[in-house]
Amino acid sequence: MNSEIMVVIIGGGVTGAGILWDLSLRGIKCTLIEKEDLCNGASGRNHGLLHSGGRYAVEDPESADECARENKILRQLAPWAIEPCGGLFIRLAGDSPEYTERWLAGCKAAQVATEPVALAAAYTYCPYLSDDVAEAYLVQDAAIDVYKLVRGLVIASRSLGANVMTRTEVIGFIFRGGRITGVRVRNTSSGFEEVIGCSLVINAAGAWAGKVAQMAGCRVKVAPDRGILLVFNARLASCVINRLRIPGDGDILVPSHNVSIFGTTSGITDTIDDQMVKRQEVEYLLAAGSELIPGMRDFRRLRAYAGVRPLLGSDDIADSRNITRTFKVFDHKEGDGVDGFISAVGGKFTTYRLMAEKTANLAAAKLGCNKPSFTGSTPIPAPEGTQQANASKSFYIFRKDSRREDRVRQLICDCEGVTDREILVAAISLPWLTLNELRNRSRFGMGTCQGTFCTYRVLGLLIEAGLIQSSEALGLLMDFLKERWKGALPVGSGEQLRETEFAHALYAYTMGLEFASGRMKGKEFTDATRPGL
Ligand SMILES: Cc1cc2nc3c(=O)[nH]c(=O)nc-3n(C[C@H](O)[C@H](O)[C@H](O)COP(=O)(O)OP(=O)(O)OC[C@H]3O[C@@H](n4cnc5c(N)ncnc54)[C@H](O)[C@@H]3O)c2cc1C
Question: Which end of the chain is less enclosed by CB atoms within 10 A, N or C?
Answer without folding.
Answer: C
